[in-house]
Amino acid sequence: MRVIQSLRRLQVWRCRMGQQNPRIGFVPTMGALHEGHLSLMRRARKECDLVVVSIFVNPLQFGPAEDLGRYPRTFQADRKACEQAGVDLIFFPQVKDLYPSTFQTSVVVKQLTQRWEGEIRPTHFQGVTTVVTKLLNLVGPHRAYFGQKDYQQYIVIKQLVEDLSLPVTIIRCPTVREADGLAMSSRNRYLGATERELATVLYRALSAGKKAITDGVRSGKKIQQNMMRLCKKHPELSIDYFTVCHPLTLEPLTRVDREAVLLGALRIGKVRLIDNIFAFLGSA
Ligand code: PAF
After folding, report:
1. Which of 145, 236, 148, 231 is nearest to 184 (CA)?
2. CATH number, span 2-173
3. Got the DSSP string for 10-51?
4. Ligand 1 geometric centre to CA of 30 (Å)
5. CA triplet 79, 85, 89: central angle to 5 degrees?
6. What angle, rounded to 10 degrees, do the helices at 151-163 and 124-139 form?
7. Bridge partners for 54 per DSSP
8. Quick check: pTM over 0.85?
């Protein structure tokens, strides 16, 4: 497995690979790798000839009051995990190389970034779409793999790729969960023992919403209330949002009469958690 830090070296590598024409699978990450990331790498390994992982804590996608400074940086452990997952190349650029002092371009996906995460983290998606565009340009993959846990991010990136006619297929992979349902996330390591126990409420709330739908509840508002009821029993939690949405436009549904995605976000102390699940009418 190779580790490349320099943009120039990566470009030389990509140019050389171009002549051999291998199918390249790409997993962009911010490191602090967990089973969720590894599942993306394994899927890429199965479907592609070469697997590239990027590890880059992207400052542009953190707001001024967010956790950029304390975001876990665990390169040695990440490197080992990538090697074990059969990754061929880690791209591990430095901030000054991806964003030199002269940097002044942003990529903005307008509508899909207005609601939910975009409302609470106003500069977040612009940071994500800018870095993902740069990474896709540099790595030149055929397929790029994203976890469903960040569902809005996945939808935004699909739109970006379509709008900019980027020659890459975006693949959504299932959320990997702990045994008690908590979606795996690099930020789970911030949770203390009591907070960790409480964190399962997010998945339980989303599951309650899904159950309401399969039980025949059709009102978006009632389904939302169903999800929030569980959380409101815990005053230590603060809810950012729970919603039932159209799975492609992410617009809230007043009536659920087709497939829907249930999105939720809450805070436990200083830790912010997001998750989502799909609900199909008539499905258990
Ligand atoms: O999902 C993430 O880890 C990040 O948002 C991504 C896609 C690597 C961009 O920095």
Report:
1. 148
2. 3.40.50.620
3. HHHHHHHHHHH-PPEEEEEE-S---HHHHHHHHHHHHH-SEE
4. 6
5. 55
6. 60
7. 28, 91
8. yes
Q: For atom 3 of ligand 1, which residue has the closest CA?
A: 29
Q: What is the pLDDT of residues 79-130, one digit of tens each?
A: 999 999 999 999 999 999 999 999 999 999 999 999 999 999 999 999 999 9
Q: How far is Cα 153 from Cα 113, in angstroms, rounded to an integer?
A: 9
Place of tokens 């990027």: 54
Q: Kindly report, residue by residue over 173-182, the tens digit of the pLDDT.
A: 999 999 999 9
Q: Where are the domains of the chain?
A: 2-173, 186-279
Q: Which CATH architecture has domain 186-279?
A: 2-Layer Sandwich (3.30)
The residue to mutate among 53, 58, 113, having the most atoms of ligand 1 within 8 angstroms of its beta carbon, is: 58
Which atom of ligand 1 has the smallest separation from the CA of 135? 9
